[in-house]
Amino acid sequence: MSEITHWINGKTFDDSAKRHGEIFNPATGEVSKKLAFGTAATVDVAVKAATDAFAEWRHSSLTKRVNVLFAFRELVNTNKEKIAALITAEHGKVLSDAAGEVTRGLEVVEFACGIPHLLKGGFSEEVSTGVDVYSIRQALGPVAIISPFNFPAMVPMWFFPVALAAGNTVILKPSEKDPSAAIWMAELWTEAGLPAGVFNVLQGDKESVDGLIESDDVASISFVGSTPIAQYIYENSARKGKRVQALGGAKNHMLVLPDADLNLVADSAVNAGFGSAGERCMAISVVVAVEPVADEMIEKIVEKMSQIKVGDGRRSCDMGPLVTKEHRDKVAGYIEIASADGAKVVVDGRNVEPDGDQAGFWLGPTLIDQVPTTSKVYQEEIFGPVLSVVRVKSFDEGLELINGGAFGNGTAVFTNDGGAARRFQNEVQAGMIGINVPIPVPVAYFSFGGWKHSLFGDSRAHGEEGFRFFTQTKVVTSRWLDPSHGGLNLGFPQN
User: Fold this and answer.
1) Closest residue by Cα to residue 73 from 174, 201, 194
2) What is the CATH number of domain 3-248+454-476?
3) Predicted confidence (pLDDT) per residue in 6-38, tens digit
4) What is the CATH superfamily name and number for domain 252-435?
């Protein structure tokens, strides 16, 4: 059985780990690889490599950085199908979905290629006689990225192209469930001409994460994952004086108004609810139906769900397995909770017959109607293919319901009423809003992030906010002396 280990200083680093994790193929239930878990000593080696490399990389020309970024973009694009296959083998999502996440990540790489423009400072001449003021944006230092299992390529690419383009060095700690894509991308960075130590991959679990948080040489932490872990990382990293991007969980609602196109609604609810087996922080998990549309809408959704083929992501399937058996069982448990709480299980994914090995971690698309808002099924992030329907009597009731939740990641409204849509986007408490768009993930030159318990810290991923996060500003007040500036003057400069 092959072993995956770290990538430090431009090459594989094996520290003869005492602890290992198991990597599964979710479609077969089999252990496919073992993963070396880093120790405090491994963290120190990775941080030192990034620190040493920073001294040179921060002074590299913008032209050189762009050349490396362009080369990396071409290499990833050329190897997109191979990276997708690695993701499918460890995460379980279908190949087309895996290739799609690589493509979305590449959009951030392409955005970062505009670094010469994005890093421009400001300049004000003659703010006082002979005095100019200008600003400079400089790199932070070694930065850490802690990424989740659900997008092992795309989410790291939300951060590291921007960080590297700005002159920082990177330590990526991928999920221990599907780390191979990170190693592959590290190898491509080396092939693209990135100097050794500028991009490092540190494997492991909480011990590695805590090591990065506690390191005095790590300037910032970027994290995507569940809300409890996001809060933990935010609080402890802030205690150490670090900059923090901590993107947490979600419970995304889709408000359906009576004038909406229900065929579009059904397509959107199914695509956004069950794509990637619901293991998306931007998945729609609750459809809020403004009566009298619920019954007709549910009928159309059920019809669309019947067309979904569940099975091995390497075959011609629409939806793959969940990432681990433990997670599959946890998600399935919510269906039992729904029944106990008085909800109506319209489609039960526990009865699915997959096109794949029976030992795989299967759970089919599930639809639950009349979910009480007091139920855990409504209140908690399920992170699986479970779509809930809540019925309301009016737009106002639906908006109040959405705004009353703990999360504020993404939301959507489906309507042909421009006034209602405009009011929704103005009043809803969420960071990313779709109008007749079910998964409103911003393009790379805007920023990704939510409100409330979906985001800790004040910086979102990529876009201009990403560049602000990975740089610090100096403001220089300059005067070049000539004889006219002599003499004693204890006051403020005079015009």
Assistant:
1) 194
2) 3.40.605.10
3) 999 999 998 887 899 999 999 999 999 999 999
4) Aldehyde Dehydrogenase; Chain A, domain 2 (3.40.309.10)
User: With a threshold of 0.85, does the pTM exceed it?
Assistant: yes
3-class secondary structure, 193: coil
| Residue 292, preceding peptide bond in cis (omega within 30° of 0) | yes
Q: What is the CA radius of gyration of the chain?
A: 25
Determine the 3-state secondary structure of 378 from DSSP.
helix
Q: Could you state, in order of their start, the residue ranges of all structural domains in the chain?
A: 3-248+454-476, 252-435
DSSP-derived secondary structure for 92-141: ---HHHHHHHHHHHHHHHHHHTTHHHHT---EEEEEETTEEEEEEEEE-S
**What pLDDT, in 10s, does the model give residues 143-173?**
999 999 999 999 999 999 999 999 999 999 9
Catalytic residues: 281
* Whether the Cβ atoms of residue 169 and residue 54 lie closer than 8 Å to each other: yes
Please count the other Cβ atoms lying within 10 Å of the Cβ belonging to residue 484.
8
- Per the document, the length of the chain is 495
